[in-house]
Design goal:
Elements: H1 2-19, E1 32-37, H2 52-61, E2 66-68, E3 75-77, E4 80-85, E5 91-96, H3 110-121, E6 142-149, E7 152-157, H4 164-169, H5 178-184, E8 198-204, E9 208-213, E10 226-231, H6 235-244, E11 249-251, H7 255-262, E12 267-273, E13 276-282, H8 292-301, H9 304-311, E14 316-318, H10 341-351, E15 357-363, H11 372-385, E16 389-395, H12 397-405, E17 414-420, H13 426-431, H14 451-462, H15 466-483, E18 486-499, E19 502-503, E20 519-520
Parallel strand pairs: 1-10, 1-11, 15-16, 15-17
Antiparallel strand pairs: 2-3, 4-5, 5-7, 6-7, 8-9, 9-10, 11-18, 12-18, 13-17, 13-18, 14-18, 19-20
């Protein structure tokens, strides 16, 4: 039976591969969902990647101890059936689901959980060298992971840490098979094994990643036979593929095409607000943006209203700071920088800089990057109108990340970036904290440092009172807005389009793509 299934699946995968060469009447294989992704994944190891593009695949192959409840950012059980939290908030004890197996046939146990977190956090772990693990910052408060028995695991934290459960639900908390890591070592990212409803089948570089139904899934097995994730980096090509029948699902629809799909009964458009921020990282260490007045000038120079209303056609709002308005319990009254070219020119004059030269990194596409080339050109024009001299360098997404994540010093003055997140702690803690510089494994690629912000972030993440946390993050928002280490641009409302044959598809506030319940008629 399994051989017959694999033969049928291989035939389906082959027909998917042929779609690109077919005319406009091309159709995707029956009961196989073809998803048009924005880029090639970097890896299928959830602990080594940072991009939502990769996470959209991974959450279908792996599971964590907990997950986000459907349609919310609330936490519910997944591989853990229940958990207890000590009174001081420093010990979490999880009772694990019994009888769960990884796709390679090995058992999911407390030992497997310990392996996962020790691998990320302990430099003396035998498989620590299969990293680096860039978002292990999320679990920096974990002092020890202890196996109580085969189905009970305990996390000891150095201090109470409010976002802990939320971070466990984020893809960095997905559980990989220790047996598969031991077998494949540094090549594990090409040979993944999780416990999820779909299991890895193949990865052909720059063509497709294929996952197939896991018939041994501990829950209800998915209806779909397989899902094919195709990297289609050019937005116009993705639209053409959607219209011609080459893909069933398209994520991140270009604003120019949204109305076309909304008005066509052959398609269904999904939209969902979530915590997203699109910004320009500014190099505060060297060059023109080392002066706060020049950074503020850049924020006054760029017409963000035009960007969100004309370029993004109302699919976003203007950002005021690093904390997205989706976290409505953060009591921020900070207003976005107004469009004021004269104020920008005055600040440049006050700083004593004339025609400052900037190198601006722009990406061709990527997770949450919206319309990065057009936006980059518009930002360039606005900056040049007030006296900046801006040279754009454009890169493919994974190449772009490789350049930006190592830090801008000696390379560039600014770079586009976007983050989708699960807690107001995540983005500022990983990108704006003094101890999150690139040489320390963080994402503070612009080298911003403010001890007051550092102290507020540390206090906010250890508070168990949400109201107090909201006030602390509001202070972070105010200070960072004034210091302007970023060009604050947009908060996006995500979207996707499916064919009418696809049923049960939903977008999530987490920006993840859960396809377990999707069917295709």
């Amino acid at each position: 039976m399994k051989r017959l299934f694999r033969s049928a699946f291989a035939a389906a995968a082959l027909s998917v591969a042929m779609i690109a060469a077919q005319p406009a009447s091309a159709q995707t294989p029956p009961n196989v969902l073809v998803v048009g992704q924005i880029a090639e994944p970097k890896s299928l190891d959830p602990h080594t990647v940072t991009a939502t593009n990769d996470f959209r695949i991974l959450v279908n192959v792996y599971e964590g101890l907990v997950r986000f409840k459907d349609g919310t950012l609330e936490i519910e059980p997944a591989l853990a059936e229940s958990w207890d939290i000590s009174e001081d908030g420093k010990t979490y004890t999880f009772k694990l689901r019994q009888g769960v197996k990884f796709h390679d046939g090995s058992d999911f146990t407390a030992e497997a959980v310990k392996f996962n977190f020790d691998r990320m956090l302990k430099e003396d772990h035998p498989f620590y060298n299969t990293g680096p693990f860039p978002l292990s910052f999320n679990f920096a408060s974990v002092e020890a992971v202890n196996v109580i028995d085969s189905q009970t695991v305990e996390f000891k934290l150095s201090e109470a840490f409010a976002p802990f459960l939320s971070n466990l639900a984020y893809p960095t908390g997905l559980i990989v098979s220790p047996a598969a890591v031991e077998q494949h070592g540094a090549d594990y990212g090409r040979n993944p094994s999780g416990t999820g409803p779909f299991k890895f089948a193949e990865w052909l570089s720059n063509q497709r990643v294929v996952v197939e139904r896991n018939p041994d899934y501990w829950g209800e097995a998915p209806a779909l036979e397989a899902v094919v994730f195709r990297p289609v980096t050019d937005a116009n090509t993705r639209v053409a593929e959607m219209l011609s029948g080459g893909i069933d699902v398209m994520v991140e629809v270009p604003p120019d095409n949204l109305t076309t799909f909304q008005q066509d009964a052959a398609f269904s458009v999904a939209e969902q607000a979530g915590p997203h921020v699109w910004f320009g990282i500014l190099n505060t260490k060297s060059g023109p943006f080392a002066d706060k007045r020049v950074r503020q000038a850049a924020n006054y120079a760029v017409n963000k209203e035009t960007l969100v209303n004309d370029v993004l056609q109302g699919t976003a709002t203007v950002a005021a700071g690093p904390i997205p308005p989706a976290f409505n319990w953060v009591e921020s009254s900070v207003e976005p920088y107004a469009y004021d070219p004269e104020k920008a020119k005055a600040l440049l004059a006050e700083a004593g800089v004339e025609a400052p030269e900037l190198t601006f990194y722009v990406t061709e596409g990527g997770s949450g990057m919206l319309d990065p080339v057009t936006m980059g050109a518009a930002i360039q024009a606005d900056l040049q109108a007030v006296g900046f001299n801006v040279k754009i360098e454009t890169y493919e997404w994974n190449t772009f990340l490789g350049r930006v994540n190592q830090g801008l010093d000696g390379q560039a003055d600014m770079a586009e970036m976007a983050w989708m997140t699960n807690d107001p702690d995540t983005v500022p803690y990983l990108t704006l904290r003094s101890d999150a510089m690139p040489d320390k494994g963080g994402f503070n690629s612009g080298y911003y440092s403010n001890p007051e912000v550092d102290a507020l972030l540390e206090k906010a993440r250890t508070s168990t009172d949400q109201a107090e946390r909201g006030k602390l993050y509001a202070q972070v928002q105010q200070i960072v807005h004034d210091d302007a280490p970023w060009l604050f641009v947009a908060n996006w409302k995500q979207n996707a389009v499916t064919t009418a044959a696809v049923q049960g598809f939903k977008l999530q506030p987490s920006f993840l793509l859960n396809l377990h319940g999707v069917t295709k008629q």
